[in-house]
Structure formats: structure tokens, C-alpha cells
Amino acid sequence: MIPPILARRSAAGFWLAVILTGIGTGLGAAALTGLLEVTQHRIWGGNGLDLLQGASRAPPWKHLVVLTGAGVLTGAGQLLLTRLSSGNGIDITAAIWFQAGRLPKLRTLGSATLSVLIVGMGAALGREGAPKQAGAVIADMLSDRVRLSDEERRLLVACGAGAGMAAAYGVPLGGALFALEVLRGVLALRFVLPALVTSVVATEVSWWFLPDAPTYHIPVFEGSLASSVWALLAGPVVGLVSVVYVRSVAWADRHKPRGWRRLLAPVIALAVLGAVSIAFPQLLGNGRDVAAQAFAGQLSPLLLMALVLLRPAATVLCLGSGAPGGLFTPSLALGALLGGVLGLPWSWLWPGVPPGLFALVGAAAMLAATTQGPISTVVLMMELTGYARAAIVPLLLAVATATLLARTIEPRSIYDARLSDAQVRERQQAREHGSGEARIR
């Protein structure tokens, strides 16, 4: 059982581990974000995390050389990582549900570092995977030191992973809810306090080194009847696209190269991405820049329609080659692009809705459907953009309808993609029973 109060004798070690996990995760997230910034700046130029600016100005040969180099680094790194531990059990979701939160520590940290480097070089994957892995490993190590039970370890590892996202993006409440709703699969009172403490501590520590500001600076959009009706119609479409996206991610994971092919496949895949990025530099990196442009209504209709197909294809290509990385921001970017595309005909039928509002609502709906975490998604979007109540009604309508349809068709989220069908069914049964206390070992 999780000790909910400090008065219990067994609670001291658990709560000490919670606080230390927050501190360690905050420092780890700051270090990994710094590494990403340095990598991007050294290779592409530009400021901070702005990869698009530098890539847009780079000569064609640089796209090819840098992305091919990222492929070589990926192949060599993956070969080295396989020697650090036997087996492939570095997925956080599988570790939480089926290994009581135990992870191969060196391999997981190595994978986190490798993912930051190749995302900084331009791989079309998310940067949140690295701080999530770092937070999970720190929680796992502290669980060993204070000898936590399997259930306490499982919760602490989820809290550490959520705190990694919270610290990397400055979203303490969203990170805590993500840890429980998406990773742990249970929103229970005895779990809420540890998740909150871990995320708040990690975020506060990261703010010593990273800016305390929203990730996306966008105009204030006001909700309207036109935007609400559009959200009701667009939500199911986003839900259907999310199912295709999740299944594509699962397919890419199942068909990752084995043996000697793991050296060659990433070189070819990332070289192809480099070639295509000469014309479409928006394909490089985690998608933060292109999502910001969509929120600001700065993408032309033709570019929107091209990127809504090319961005997810680039992410699946990278995943299928064996490149490690996250899926949070790529999913958000896909939703922003899809929302912008779905808003084009609506603007002709019922003018008056800002293009950026279509993108914002689409991003929230896609995140909710692909993570199957509607509550955490709404909070995350508010924290990422600095919003409070603006346009909340169309956003909630799209999130609810997209998630409902996606769950009806596909039980997997993007974070369940590595689970087998039997594991997905077992986890789903545990979640439906409401306890989340499945006897999984």
C-alpha cells in the first residue's frame, strides 16, 4: 500500500524518495535540455530550442550530412546500448506495469542521452522521452536504496517519469496528472500527493536553469458557437486519425531492424529525412517550431496539407529505423497541423474563427486521443500555452469526442505501442476494474 500520511512509520523512506526523485529529475531534465540546446546551436545555429530557423537557412548539403551523421550515431549507439544489458526492456510503460518499475539503468540513461543528441541533430522525434527516462531511472535507483515495495516502486517510477516531463516543459500539474492518468493508469487520491510533490519539486529545481515561461506564446483565442460546432465535428475525425497514427507507431516498433540491419537502417532512414527536409525543414526536430507556427496562423494552406502527411511519416520513419525518442510533441504538432487543415473548409462555410484556434483545439484533441489521457491533456495544454479559460469549451468538446472514438476503436495509446496484444488486454482489464493494482510481475 502507498503510505498517504507522514504519521505512518513506513512513510519516511517513501516520502524521502519522492523528494529526492523530484530533485534528481529536475537536475537531469535541465542537463538534458542544455545538451539539446548546445547540440542544436552547434549544428544548426539559431537560438535556444529553435531548430527551424537554423535549418531553413542551412545549405542542402548540410541537411544530408547532418541527418546521415545522426543515422550513423543512432546505429552505433544502439549497438553499444544492446551490450549494456540483455533484452530490450527499456520502455517505461512496460516496466511500470509488468516489471514493478524496474529498468535496465545504464541502458535507459544511454538511450535518453542518444535521443537528445539525434533530436538535436534533426530526428523527427520528441525531446520529452529523455527526461522521462532519466526521472524513471532515478526513481528506480532510489527505490532500491530505501527498499520500497513493488507497488511503491511502480508509483514512484511513474511519478519520476511524469516529473521529467514537468521539468522539461515547465508543467508541474500536467506532469503529475500525466504520470497518473497515462503512465500509472489510475487517478486515486493516495497517488495524487506523491505525483504532485515529485513534479513540483522537479519543476522548481529545473527553473534554476531553464526559463519559467510557457512553451508556446500564442494569441488569446475566444470561444464561439462557430468554433464549438466545428470542434464537435472535427473531434471524431481527429480521433480516427489518431487511431491510424497509434497503429503506425505500433507497426514501426514491431518492425524495428534486428542484427546488422540496426546499423544500416537508421543511416538510410535519416538520410532520406535529410533529403526531404531540404524542401521541408519543418520536418526536422520534435515539431515544436511548426506547432508554434500553426498556433500563430503562419502556415499557408498548401504547406499545412503537405506537412500533415509528411510530419507523421517522418516520425514513423525515424521510429521504424530504431531511433530512440519521444512522441509527445510530434503528436501535438500533428494535431495542430490536422486542426489547421480541418479548419480550412470551415473558414469558408462559417468565417470568423482564427486559424490558430483550429490548430490549438486540434493539438489538444490529438494529444488526448493518442495518450488516452483527456484530463492531463487539457491541463498540459493550459500550462504549455499559459491559457486559463479562453476557448475552453471547443477544446473540451474536441478532446472528449476524439478520445471517446479513439478508445472505442483502439485500446492502445502511443505509450502502449511496445506492449504485446496480451499485455494490452491485461492492462486494460486492470484499468477497467478501477484499482490498477493488477498482480503483474
Commentary on this structure:
The chain has helices at residues 11-44, 51-57, 60-84, 92-98, 105-121, 129-146, 150-169, 172-184, 189-206, 225-254, 261-277, 288-295, 301-320, 328-349, 355-371, 374-385, 392-409, 421-432. With 441 residues, the chain is an all-alpha fold. It starts with 10 loop residues before the first helix and ends in a 9-residue tail after the last helix.
Itemize the secondary structure elements and their pairings.
Elements: H1 11-44, H2 51-57, H3 60-84, H4 92-98, H5 105-121, H6 129-146, H7 150-169, H8 172-184, H9 189-206, H10 225-254, H11 261-277, H12 288-295, H13 301-320, H14 328-349, H15 355-371, H16 374-385, H17 392-409, H18 421-432
Structure summarized in a few sentences:
With 441 residues, the protein is mainly α.
What are the defining features of this structure?
71% helix, Clc chloride channel, 18 helices
